[in-house]
Amino acid sequence: MRSRPVRVAAAILLVLTIVSPAAVVFAVVWTAPVVAQPPPVAAVDTEPSRPLPAPDVQQVTLPTAPFNVYANAMSSVVPCPLCEIPPRVYVPNSTAGTVDVIDPLTFKVIDHYAVGAIPHHIAPAWDMSELYVDNEASSYLTVIDIHTGRPTGGKINIPFPYNLYFTPDGNKAIDVVERLQRIEFRDPHNGWRLLGSVPIPWPGADHLDFSADGSYLMISTEYSGIVARVDVVNMKLTGYVRVGGLPIDVKLSPDGTLFYVSNQGRMGVSVIDPAAMQEIQFIPTGRGAHGLQIGRDTHLLYVSNRLEGTISVIDFATRREVSKWPIPGGGSPDMLQLNPDGTQLWASGRYNATVYVFSTVTGLLITKIRVGPQDHGLTYFPNVGLHSLGHNGVYR
Hints:
- The protein is mainly β.
- It contains two helices and 28 strands.
- A four-stranded antiparallel sheet has the order 3-2-1-28, with no helix packed on it. It has a four-stranded antiparallel sheet with strand order 4-5-6-7, with no helix packed on it.
- Helix 1 crosses helix 2 (about 20-30).
- The longest helix is centred in the first third of the chain and has 16 residues, at about 5-20.
- The protein is globular, with a radius of gyration of 40 Å.
């Protein structure tokens, strides 16, 4: 028999079980012994291991486009408002002291007028607001209105201008005074006053081009076989290289590292390193290599072989002649110009009183146009580019 207290406790427990099942759970949990829990098992990754991408917070540097000196002149469209001006080709006739004006759409001479004595080149102003005829023997520039295509009546008096250039920043004009063996730096914004003069101690200084940053220029001296370097900022001679022959036209390579100089005496083109002042290569082209023109896409260099009557085409990438275009019946191509879309190469015919027009697509002669005697530095205007460096239309 059970004692009274035991029976009382059993009765109470029975009542709680009936009344509250939750109490049963509580009782079991409270009276159950404590069991240690096993440590959690790490999940197993059955996928192949691969690194997560880095957070997209770091700076990203995009590849830079290759530098090109002539980037602004690679378009085939004349910028406005110049686009509203009818295209014209202006041809100075050195012996006659005249200018012929050609409509390039019809290949017809549409105007003809007198200028000064021995006009050699027609240079667009740096901002392309007007054109200048270099009247060497008369010691003045004839100013041409770009809208009418005719002289304004204005004259700019500077000594014996064989050639006229503008620094890339437009702050200085350069009168190439071949007769006096010097170049003069002038201020075209303030009455063309003289800023400085640099003697070129070799005969025949006549063509030049500027470095990519415009800090110096390289100038040929035709009758001495020298190409000289001039500091544009300080206006002083800083070096020279002897290439021999008869160096004529000068052009900077599109990447800005080398200068190409046509050499009429050596029948080809000298390639010059301006830092070392050395000729690093010579590219044969033809007899009387004379004028140079950069192709519109800047891959090619056109060379007029004046005594041979041909145009050579040089590939900048390989520095080799890749084609040659003859003038049927012969001729004397001199200074060169491209039309805006680069499909036509125009050349003055120095000894034939003729302008030649080539197709740059086929290399064939499109037409010949009769002009005055000793036609020289013709210019096709308006044309593409941000600014003019002068000469007969060199643009950047």
